[in-house]
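New to this. Help decode both lines:
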Amino acid sequence: MMTLEEAIQTQGFSSARSKAVVHLMYTAYQLKSGISLVLKDYALTPEQYNVLRILKGSHPSALCNRDIASRTIERNANIPRIVDRLEIKKLVKRNTSPQDRRETLISLTAAGINLLNAASAALQQHEPDIMPLSEADADSLNQLLAKMLTA
C-alpha cells in the first residue's frame, strides 16, 4: 500500500493539519473516481447521480433548481445544465409551477427512478472497493468529519 507522500511524490508536510488537508483532497478525488467508474455503466456523472438522488428524496413532489442546488454535495454545480442533460435522457421532466409561472419544477420520471435504483444498487455492491473500511472505522471517520464540519 502506497503512502500519501509516495502517491503525490512529496518529501513531507509542514504540519499534521497540512497533511490532513491534502490527504482529504486526494482521498476525495480517489473516491469520486471510483464512483465515476461505477456510474459510467449507467451513463451518469456523480453530479447527475446526486441530482437524481435529491429528486428521489422529495418524490413525488417536484423541486425547483434553487432547492436542488441547496442540497447538492458540490455547491458550484451547474444545476440547470445537469437537469438539461437528465431531461434529454428522459430521466427527469420539467413542469411550470402552478403557483408561480416563472418557476420550473423538476421531477423524476419512472425511467429516472429505475436508473437511480440500478445505479444505487451497483454503488452499494462496489462500496467495499470504493470505501475499504470496516463499519467501525467508517463510523469513526464519520465522527471525525462531523467534528470538522461543526468546528
Notes: The two ends are 32 Å apart (CA to CA). The first strand starts at residue 92 and ends at 96. The chain has one domain: 14-131. The chain has seven helices and two strands.
